[in-house]
Protein backbone atom coordinates (compact mmCIF):
# COMPACT_ATOMS: atom_id res chain seq x y z
CA UNK A 1 0.00 0.00 0.00
CA UNK A 2 1.36 3.41 -0.92
CA UNK A 3 0.67 7.14 -0.74
CA UNK A 4 1.74 9.42 -3.59
CA UNK A 5 1.54 13.23 -3.62
CA UNK A 6 2.54 14.92 -6.86
CA UNK A 7 1.85 17.84 -9.19
CA UNK A 8 2.47 15.63 -12.22
CA UNK A 9 3.07 11.86 -12.33
CA UNK A 10 1.05 9.98 -9.75
CA UNK A 11 1.42 6.59 -11.43
CA UNK A 12 3.83 6.16 -14.33
CA UNK A 13 2.75 3.82 -17.15
CA UNK A 14 3.15 0.25 -15.99
CA UNK A 15 1.61 -3.23 -16.08
CA UNK A 16 1.39 -6.10 -13.64
CA UNK A 17 -0.46 -9.35 -12.95
CA UNK A 18 -1.95 -8.02 -9.74
CA UNK A 19 -5.23 -6.30 -8.94
CA UNK A 20 -5.20 -2.72 -7.72
CA UNK A 21 -7.40 -0.15 -6.00
CA UNK A 22 -6.45 3.53 -6.19
CA UNK A 23 -8.22 6.14 -4.06
CA UNK A 24 -7.92 9.75 -5.23
CA UNK A 25 -7.87 11.67 -1.95
CA UNK A 26 -7.21 15.23 -3.18
CA UNK A 27 -7.02 17.05 -6.50
CA UNK A 28 -7.97 16.29 -10.09
CA UNK A 29 -6.32 13.64 -12.23
CA UNK A 30 -6.33 11.98 -15.62
CA UNK A 31 -6.24 8.18 -15.65
CA UNK A 32 -5.31 5.96 -18.59
CA UNK A 33 -6.28 2.27 -18.48
CA UNK A 34 -5.38 0.50 -21.72
CA UNK A 35 -7.27 2.50 -24.37
CA UNK A 36 -9.65 4.27 -21.96
CA UNK A 37 -9.06 7.72 -20.46
CA UNK A 38 -10.92 9.25 -17.50
CA UNK A 39 -10.72 12.67 -15.87
CA UNK A 40 -11.85 12.62 -12.26
CA UNK A 41 -11.87 14.85 -9.19
CA UNK A 42 -11.42 13.69 -5.62
CA UNK A 43 -12.89 11.82 -3.96
CA UNK A 44 -12.93 8.78 -6.24
CA UNK A 45 -11.87 5.14 -6.29
CA UNK A 46 -10.47 3.26 -9.27
CA UNK A 47 -10.19 -0.47 -9.74
CA UNK A 48 -7.44 -1.74 -12.07
CA UNK A 49 -7.88 -5.30 -13.26
CA UNK A 50 -4.99 -7.67 -13.89
CA UNK A 51 -2.82 -7.12 -16.99
CA UNK A 52 -4.11 -3.60 -17.70
CA UNK A 53 -1.59 -0.93 -18.70
CA UNK A 54 -2.32 2.12 -16.59
CA UNK A 55 -0.99 5.52 -15.60
CA UNK A 56 -2.23 8.57 -13.73
CA UNK A 57 -1.20 12.21 -13.59
CA UNK A 58 -2.35 15.38 -11.84
CA UNK A 59 -4.01 18.09 -13.91
CA UNK A 60 -3.48 21.85 -14.11
CA UNK A 61 -0.12 21.68 -12.33
CA UNK A 62 -1.82 21.28 -8.96
CA UNK A 63 -0.93 18.68 -6.36
CA UNK A 64 -3.01 15.52 -6.06
CA UNK A 65 -2.87 12.74 -3.47
CA UNK A 66 -3.60 9.06 -4.02
CA UNK A 67 -3.59 5.97 -1.86
CA UNK A 68 -2.86 2.69 -3.63
CA UNK A 69 -3.55 -0.94 -2.74
CA UNK A 70 -1.96 -3.64 -4.93
CA UNK A 71 -2.59 -7.29 -4.16
CA UNK A 72 -1.82 -10.64 -5.73
CA UNK A 73 -4.78 -12.47 -7.26
CA UNK A 74 -3.76 -15.62 -5.40
CA UNK A 75 -4.78 -13.89 -2.17
CA UNK A 76 -8.37 -14.15 -3.37
CA UNK A 77 -8.30 -17.11 -5.74
CA UNK A 78 -6.83 -19.35 -3.05
CA UNK A 79 -9.71 -18.57 -0.72
CA UNK A 80 -12.28 -18.98 -3.49
CA UNK A 81 -10.80 -22.28 -4.69
CA UNK A 82 -13.52 -24.45 -3.16
CA UNK A 83 -16.28 -21.85 -3.36
CA UNK A 84 -18.88 -21.04 -5.99
CA UNK A 85 -17.20 -17.62 -6.18
CA UNK A 86 -14.24 -19.21 -8.00
CA UNK A 87 -16.15 -19.23 -11.28
CA UNK A 88 -17.39 -15.64 -10.90
CA UNK A 89 -13.92 -14.41 -9.91
CA UNK A 90 -12.21 -16.19 -12.81
CA UNK A 91 -14.69 -14.75 -15.29
CA UNK A 92 -14.37 -11.28 -13.75
CA UNK A 93 -10.58 -11.35 -14.20
CA UNK A 94 -10.82 -12.56 -17.79
CA UNK A 95 -13.77 -10.60 -19.18
CA UNK A 96 -14.79 -7.69 -16.95
CA UNK A 97 -14.70 -4.38 -18.86
CA UNK A 98 -12.58 -1.48 -17.68
CA UNK A 99 -14.59 0.00 -14.82
CA UNK A 100 -15.56 3.66 -14.66
CA UNK A 101 -14.19 5.57 -11.65
CA UNK A 102 -16.33 4.91 -8.58
CA UNK A 103 -17.72 8.17 -7.17
CA UNK A 104 -19.67 9.00 -3.96
CA UNK A 105 -22.96 8.50 -5.83
CA UNK A 106 -22.09 4.84 -6.57
CA UNK A 107 -23.98 2.22 -4.50
CA UNK A 108 -20.69 0.61 -3.43
CA UNK A 109 -19.01 3.86 -2.40
CA UNK A 110 -19.54 3.60 1.36
CA UNK A 111 -18.42 -0.04 1.54
CA UNK A 112 -15.34 0.54 -0.61
CA UNK A 113 -14.16 3.70 1.15
CA UNK A 114 -14.77 2.32 4.64
CA UNK A 115 -12.76 -0.84 4.06
CA UNK A 116 -10.08 0.82 1.92
CA UNK A 117 -9.40 3.39 4.64
CA UNK A 118 -9.41 0.71 7.34
CA UNK A 119 -6.88 -1.37 5.39
CA UNK A 120 -4.68 1.67 4.77
CA UNK A 121 -4.76 2.62 8.45
CA UNK A 122 -3.88 -0.92 9.53
CA UNK A 123 -1.00 -1.09 7.05
CA UNK A 124 0.41 2.22 8.34
CA UNK A 125 0.16 1.15 12.00
CA UNK A 126 1.65 -2.34 11.44
CA UNK A 127 0.19 -3.66 14.67
CA UNK A 128 -0.17 -7.35 15.42
CA UNK A 129 -2.88 -8.96 13.29
CA UNK A 130 -2.92 -6.17 10.72
CA UNK A 131 -2.51 -8.66 7.86
CA UNK A 132 -5.78 -10.36 8.81
CA UNK A 133 -7.70 -7.09 8.99
CA UNK A 134 -6.29 -5.98 5.63
CA UNK A 135 -7.27 -9.30 4.07
CA UNK A 136 -10.74 -9.05 5.60
CA UNK A 137 -11.12 -5.52 4.23
CA UNK A 138 -10.07 -6.74 0.80
CA UNK A 139 -12.79 -9.41 0.85
CA UNK A 140 -15.35 -6.80 1.93
CA UNK A 141 -14.36 -4.69 -1.08
CA UNK A 142 -14.15 -7.39 -3.73
CA UNK A 143 -17.19 -9.54 -2.96
CA UNK A 144 -19.76 -6.74 -3.57
CA UNK A 145 -18.00 -6.02 -6.87
CA UNK A 146 -18.22 -9.69 -7.85
CA UNK A 147 -21.91 -9.78 -6.92
CA UNK A 148 -22.53 -6.73 -9.09
CA UNK A 149 -20.62 -8.34 -11.95
CA UNK A 150 -22.71 -11.49 -11.60
CA UNK A 151 -25.94 -9.47 -11.77
CA UNK A 152 -24.81 -7.36 -14.74
CA UNK A 153 -24.03 -10.44 -16.81
CA UNK A 154 -27.16 -12.23 -15.60
CA UNK A 155 -25.01 -15.16 -14.59
CA UNK A 156 -26.95 -18.11 -13.28
CA UNK A 157 -28.13 -17.64 -9.72
CA UNK A 158 -27.51 -21.35 -9.29
CA UNK A 159 -23.85 -20.76 -8.48
CA UNK A 160 -23.34 -24.36 -7.42
CA UNK A 161 -24.21 -25.49 -10.95
CA UNK A 162 -21.98 -22.79 -12.49
CA UNK A 163 -19.16 -23.78 -10.17
CA UNK A 164 -19.51 -27.44 -11.16
CA UNK A 165 -19.36 -26.46 -14.84
CA UNK A 166 -16.27 -24.35 -14.19
CA UNK A 167 -14.57 -27.22 -12.34
CA UNK A 168 -15.31 -29.52 -15.27
CA UNK A 169 -13.56 -27.10 -17.64
CA UNK A 170 -10.63 -26.39 -15.31
CA UNK A 171 -8.26 -28.99 -16.89
CA UNK A 172 -8.77 -27.33 -20.29
CA UNK A 173 -8.25 -23.84 -18.84
CA UNK A 174 -5.07 -24.98 -17.07
CA UNK A 175 -3.84 -26.52 -20.34
CA UNK A 176 -4.40 -23.23 -22.20
CA UNK A 177 -2.50 -21.25 -19.57
CA UNK A 178 0.47 -23.63 -19.56
CA UNK A 179 0.65 -24.41 -23.31
CA UNK A 180 -0.44 -21.08 -24.83
CA UNK A 181 2.77 -20.86 -26.91
CA UNK A 182 1.84 -24.04 -28.78
CA UNK A 183 -0.89 -24.69 -31.32
CA UNK A 184 -4.03 -25.53 -29.38
CA UNK A 185 -6.93 -27.37 -30.96
CA UNK A 186 -10.52 -27.53 -29.76
CA UNK A 187 -10.40 -31.32 -30.17
CA UNK A 188 -7.54 -31.48 -27.68
CA UNK A 189 -9.31 -29.25 -25.15
CA UNK A 190 -12.56 -31.17 -25.48
CA UNK A 191 -10.71 -34.45 -25.02
CA UNK A 192 -9.31 -33.23 -21.70
CA UNK A 193 -12.84 -32.93 -20.31
CA UNK A 194 -14.48 -35.75 -22.30
CA UNK A 195 -16.59 -33.50 -24.53
CA UNK A 196 -16.93 -33.29 -28.29
CA UNK A 197 -15.54 -30.09 -29.88
CA UNK A 198 -19.10 -28.79 -30.39
CA UNK A 199 -20.27 -29.41 -26.82
CA UNK A 200 -16.97 -28.21 -25.39
CA UNK A 201 -17.18 -24.90 -27.29
CA UNK A 202 -20.78 -24.35 -26.20
CA UNK A 203 -20.06 -25.05 -22.52
CA UNK A 204 -16.83 -23.01 -22.56
CA UNK A 205 -18.65 -19.96 -23.96
CA UNK A 206 -21.43 -20.36 -21.39
CA UNK A 207 -19.00 -20.56 -18.46
CA UNK A 208 -16.32 -18.03 -19.47
CA UNK A 209 -18.23 -15.67 -21.74
CA UNK A 210 -15.62 -16.24 -24.45
CA UNK A 211 -15.10 -18.77 -27.21
CA UNK A 212 -12.07 -21.02 -26.67
CA UNK A 213 -10.11 -19.13 -29.36
CA UNK A 214 -10.96 -15.73 -27.87
CA UNK A 215 -9.89 -16.95 -24.44
CA UNK A 216 -6.63 -18.33 -25.85
CA UNK A 217 -5.87 -15.11 -27.73
CA UNK A 218 -6.68 -12.96 -24.70
CA UNK A 219 -4.27 -15.00 -22.57
CA UNK A 220 -1.60 -14.87 -25.28
CA UNK A 221 -1.93 -11.10 -25.55
CA UNK A 222 -1.54 -10.72 -21.78
CA UNK A 223 1.66 -12.77 -21.90
CA UNK A 224 2.86 -10.72 -24.88
CA UNK A 225 2.43 -7.51 -22.87
CA UNK A 226 4.83 -8.86 -20.28
CA UNK A 227 7.45 -9.70 -22.92
CA UNK A 228 7.06 -6.34 -24.68
CA UNK A 229 7.74 -4.50 -21.46
CA UNK A 230 10.28 -6.77 -19.77
CA UNK A 231 12.28 -8.41 -22.58
CA UNK A 232 14.45 -7.06 -25.39
CA UNK A 233 12.85 -9.23 -28.07
CA UNK A 234 11.60 -8.24 -31.51
CA UNK A 235 7.86 -8.07 -32.16
CA UNK A 236 8.19 -11.13 -34.40
CA UNK A 237 9.97 -13.10 -31.66
CA UNK A 238 7.27 -12.18 -29.16
CA UNK A 239 4.53 -13.23 -31.58
CA UNK A 240 6.22 -16.61 -31.98
CA UNK A 241 6.77 -17.09 -28.24
CA UNK A 242 3.14 -16.41 -27.45
CA UNK A 243 1.65 -18.78 -29.99
CA UNK A 244 0.64 -16.46 -32.83
CA UNK A 245 1.06 -17.93 -36.30
CA UNK A 246 2.46 -14.71 -37.79
CA UNK A 247 3.30 -11.18 -36.74
CA UNK A 248 0.53 -9.56 -38.79
CA UNK A 249 -2.15 -11.62 -37.07
CA UNK A 250 -0.52 -10.88 -33.70
CA UNK A 251 -0.56 -7.15 -34.46
CA UNK A 252 -4.23 -7.29 -35.50
CA UNK A 253 -5.44 -9.23 -32.45
CA UNK A 254 -3.34 -7.15 -30.05
CA UNK A 255 -4.76 -3.87 -31.38
CA UNK A 256 -8.33 -5.18 -31.34
CA UNK A 257 -8.00 -6.05 -27.66
CA UNK A 258 -6.03 -3.03 -26.46
CA UNK A 259 -6.64 -0.15 -28.86
CA UNK A 260 -2.92 0.16 -29.66
CA UNK A 261 -0.30 -1.96 -31.41
CA UNK A 262 2.54 -3.90 -29.76
CA UNK A 263 5.03 -1.36 -31.13
CA UNK A 264 3.02 1.56 -29.73
CA UNK A 265 3.00 -0.10 -26.32
CA UNK A 266 6.76 -0.61 -26.38
CA UNK A 267 7.36 3.02 -27.44
CA UNK A 268 5.14 4.24 -24.61
CA UNK A 269 7.22 2.42 -22.03
CA UNK A 270 10.52 3.37 -23.66
CA UNK A 271 9.59 7.05 -23.61
CA UNK A 272 8.34 6.92 -20.02
UniProtKB/TrEMBL annotation:
Keyword Transcription: yes
Keywords: DNA-binding, Transcription, Transcription regulation
Family matches, as InterPro entries: AraC-bd (IPR003313), Homeodomain-like_sf (IPR009057), HTH-like (IPR037923), HTH_AraC (IPR018060), HTH_AraC-typ_CS (IPR018062), RmlC-like_jellyroll (IPR014710)
Official protein name in the record: Helix-turn-helix domain-containing protein
Domain (HTH araC/xylS-type) ranges: 170-268
UniProt organism field: Paenibacillus silvestris
SUPFAM superfamilies: Homeodomain-like, Regulatory protein AraC
PROSITE patterns: HTH_ARAC_FAMILY_1, HTH_ARAC_FAMILY_2
GO molecular function terms noted in the UniProt entry: DNA-binding transcription factor activity; sequence-specific DNA binding
Pfam families (UniProt xref): AraC_binding, HTH_18
Superkingdom of the source species: Bacteria
